[in-house]
Amino acid sequence: MPAPITANSADTAWIMTATALVLLMTLPGLALFYGGLVRSKNALSILIQCFAITGLVSLLWVACGYSLAFGDGGSAQGFIGGLHRAFLLGLSPTDLTGTLPESVFALFQLTFAVITPALVIGGYAERLRFSAVLWFSGLWLLLVYVPVAHWIWGGGWLAQLGVMDFAGGIVVHVNAGVAALVCACVIGPRRGFPQVAMPPHSLPLVAAGAGLLWVGWFGFNGGSALAANGTAGMALLATHLGACAGALSWMTIEWTRYGKPSALGLLTGVVAGLGTITPASGYVSPLGAILIGLIAGAVCFLATQWIKRKLHIDDSLDVSPVHGVGGVIGSLLTAVFAATALGGSGYSLQTDMWSQLGVQALGIIATAAWCGGISWLLLRVLDATLGLRVSEEDESEGLDLAAHGERGYSP
User: pLDDT of 263-277, one tens digit each?
Assistant: First the structure.
């Protein structure tokens, strides 16, 4: 009689640790990073939005998000999962997903679902009504994030085509970047942009947040191996090297162009490197990770200049040029640096790179189109019903007082 299948203790312990690290990325990592980037009169509102989104998304994930993303969809399997795990009914401590208790897998994936709509905050920071933040985040989770997660990670149609996205270059970063860009365009710029300078009010907070994001990203990428094994170890190494290369690349370009390396540029380069290495982290060699990070710092720097200074789109905290563009180039470069000839763990460079590039491009385009269309529709409906934007008086006063009746900082 075969022995009963049980959870692997080492894998379980690592993914439980990785889960805590990914939650650390949102609370307090992203909250501090974004909170320091805005003006002081809006800092508290950013923190509140991150905490509120965490609570809302967590409950929606348990109610139906997890089941729709990772469940068996029957005849609709290619597009969406089913509801057999709605509210996690029937979930037992002995139920497994691979070598993990399913409860641990569901919670690990919950932390990804939390940070993705939280990233979108950067596209509409300092001007969206709090009620609109909650409605948009909840509906966006169910109508955008959940289907895309199923397409790529839940056995959906893009997974069946062979899209490679180790830890969320498409599912998280392309999704968040496109949504933030649509929000910035639909809601419009902050009053005074681009004529009025709106510098970060606290670079030390930005640095603290960036440091927490960097550490938390080890769980984000390393945990996506779903095991305590060599793939997880290589993903951790690739993550760190990508962040280092991204930071130095951005800093060097800024130093050369403007004569001084800024703290903000270095920290943004860290995040660009981290976001860009994400889809490739479990597939590429250390050298491949360094090259991806160097490219990320340069391309994301140029994208930020182009979107803000040329197009005058007020993506307030640069979500689309850093996360969106980073997710795109990282997903495409996965098809190159995952090749075994370049030290990766994927496939033959000569026979498969071009076909894999095509599959990666299809995944990016399909996700961007779905996310962009649904995000635009949600914003239009919410604007017609709730109203999206705060009043001119409230925006001038700041959302800390206007929306929450509290001050994060003394005037």
Answer: 999 999 999 999 999
pLDDT attached to residue 393: 96
For residue 132, give every residue at least 6 positions away whose Cβ sits within 8 Å of its Cβ, in sequence order, or none.
382, 386, 387, 388
Distance CA 97, CA 104 (A): 9
Question: Which carries the bigger pLDDT value, residue 283 or residue 74?
Answer: 283
Q: Could you write out the DSSP letters of every residue in 195-213? A: TS----S-HHHHHHHHHHH
CATH 3.40.50.1000 fits 11-404, yes or no: no
Burial of 370 from C-beta contacts in 10 A (0-12 / 13-18 / 19+): middle
pLDDT averaged over the chain?
95
Taking the CB of residue 79, how many other CB atoms lie within 10 A of it?
12
Question: CA triplet 58, 140, 143: central angle to 5 degrees?
Answer: 100
Interhelix angle for 263-277 vs 203-217, to 10°?
Answer: 20
The answer to whether the predicted template modeling score (pTM) of the entire model surpasses 0.90 is yes
Asked if 228 and 10 touch (Cβ cutoff 8 Å), the reply is: yes
pLDDT above 90 covers what percent of the chain?
92
CA atoms within 13 A on the CB side of 248: 11
- Structure token digits, residue 171: 């599912």
DSSP code at position 389: B
CB atoms within 10 A of CB 8: 18
Provide the residue ranges of all domains of the chain, joining segments of one domain with +.
11-404
